[in-house]
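Quick sanity check, Sema domain-containing protein:
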Amino acid sequence: MDAASGSPRTGPRTPCRRMEPQLWVCVLGLLLWCPPLTLCLRQSLPRIRLGHKELLASGRVVPFVGGGEVESLLLDEERGRLLLGTRDHVSLLDLEHINSSPRKISWPAPRDTVEMCKLAGKNAQTECANFIRVLHSYNRTHVYACGTGAFSPLCAFLETGGPGEGSVFRLQSSTVESGRLKCPFDPRQPFASVLTDQYLYTGTASDFLGKDTTFTRSLGPAPQQNFIRTDISEHYWINEGKFVAAHPVSDTYNPDDDKIYFFFREASLDGSSSDKSVLSRVARVCRNDIGGLRSLTNKWTTFLKARLVCSIPGPDGVDTHFHELQDIFLLPTRDERNPTVYGVFTTTSSIFKGSAVCVYSMADIRAVFNGPYAHKEGPAHRWGEYEGRIPYPRPGTCPSKTYDPRIKTTKDFPDEVVSFIKHHPMMYRAVYPVTGRPVFTRVNVDYRLTQIAVDRVTAEDGQYAVMFLGTDVGTLLKVVSITQENRVLEEVVLEELQVFQGPSPIVHLEISSKQQQLFVGSSDGLAQVSLHHCNLYGQVCAECCLARDPYCAWDGSACSRYVQAAKRRARRQDIKHGDPWSQCWDIEEVMGGDQVEEKLIFGVEQNSTLLECVPKTPQARIRWLLQRAGSELREEVKPDERDPDRSGPADPDAAPEGRGVLLLHGPGAQLHAHPAQGHPARHRPSPPGAAPPGGPGARGPAALQGLPAPAERAERSSPGAGPLLRDAVAARPPPTAEGQVETRARAEEEPQSEAPARTRVERASQWRGSVLHLSHSGVPYLHYSNQTLN
């Protein structure tokens, strides 16, 4: 894998190698078929990129009306509801329609607390309020909630009603209590919490300044309320921790072995004060830990931590590390004891900016915790492997009657066990990704990944984990990582969606596989996003297969949601290879050009004409080829070779101009070319025995045989051929002094249109000029015919 880009250095599949010398280009070609993205691009581009307005128009995203900055989310799929914590309020929303009769509880901070917060120099709007940061289901009728309380945390129970009591939603004022060590003081302070078996586990700052960080347990059924925390007197337990997530996981079938795993990043001091860096950690404690008897009283006696590594191996043995853990998602498997762990990491360097997603197995994590301990001789020494005697029972082991009848609780641990774990809480070995490297990377882009949610999707050729990744600029990436036959990972970006109008960081993601919805939270509010919108990929089988979206398949007439059935019927899908030639029976007919629509663009002599192409998919590579009147030869329009940043000879009659090409009419005309923009993508070789595109005997758009008259060309249209287009509307500026009019035409994709594009025609008496052709996604869908008026 390339250390800078993070792209796997792998070869293409064998069929792709045969494609390289046979580029399938129709005179103006958008090539979307190429060798796998690991070879074509250092970082794969999204198949679809939609802006905020396009998302709203498509109905794919539904913003929550009346909500503020999202502080917390609680998803309740069983009852079909979502709790939303914001500034001074908690809202109860319907999962299917978040704007359908939402209910709201007002819970502001006390006035005197707000005034004290202001006197302490805090901001009245962004800090001195009750930001609801903790929402957890306590039982079937109550939710436990906590807020920052204007830097004086508060907690209370919300009554949500049981079965048949859906209208109940109120704050139980009599239960309001201090939220210290349960909720952070600062609304921006990273923290993590989980509530299980009526116990609340929280990783947060324990003081007003946010310096001392600790992992605690509170609440619990009476009389078993044992408040436990980490030892803050030893900085090597947790040092300036930033908590990310906490999850209960059963290690064995014995409930006494149940543990809480929590993930965080911390400042690491190794050797000297100058050797300070940020490292990511996974730690665990036993759920039945009640502290020590003489030492570590009311402190964890089973606390252990290990390093999480997410890095790209370099060719010279030097890895590129993504040190800062940002988010964790546990994807359940058939074995509830072994969920798959997905982590989002970012770099700490201000020069090399990047993000990565690494995947870990619980088996590997347990193996590290069962391995050697780390040991440090003194403050000036580095950590090494502990090679001394390990006391019995092994430090970090949960007390269990089945393990040793003499040790019923952690207070029964021998003193040497408690002393050992106090001074050796860290494991020597690190946890590495199951693939040895990230499954997805983004480097040197203008955003960083912040959040992750994963959905397991069954497709025609197997199961795939679809990742939804939030960024710090308000965009959402939909990604699938595919393992090829040679065990090489291929990252495929399906969509890039601008969920929010502004570049606000995405701070919460909650996925509902049952409702097929994703709930996205940011400082701009809450949005409900559908997991799929298959018809956006195109209107033909080839485009649906090329998308490689596990949610979508071609059903014979449209790209629609894939539903597994006993009989295959007409469902066409190829996620692993994205090969429409093996799936679509009508691919030859589509490629033949019978469904091509032509656009007629008129220019005036001595004036230039701009032909613009705006493909829907950023994976397209645009190539313009010019066929002059009376000639069967097609020449590629290349940039001006006099510009050192451009290559290829300049064409005297046409020049690439961004996503378009500029045609200049008139004798002796000279052009100053600009580089065409575009990206390589998939292409397919010609069928065996077929003439090369544009050669003798070629059919369809590759050979211009018998150009029809203007009237015939204007009437020709064909529904369903590739992405639909808006009308090519001529922009008519005021006439020049000579009475001439410059005409420009733009072909723009319109995914939501259901009517075929039409051609606007203007009369002309005499014709001469050139013809250009366009193909998109390997499916020709537009002809440009440029004529010049005398």
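Posting the structure with no commentary besides this: The chain has a mean pLDDT of 77.
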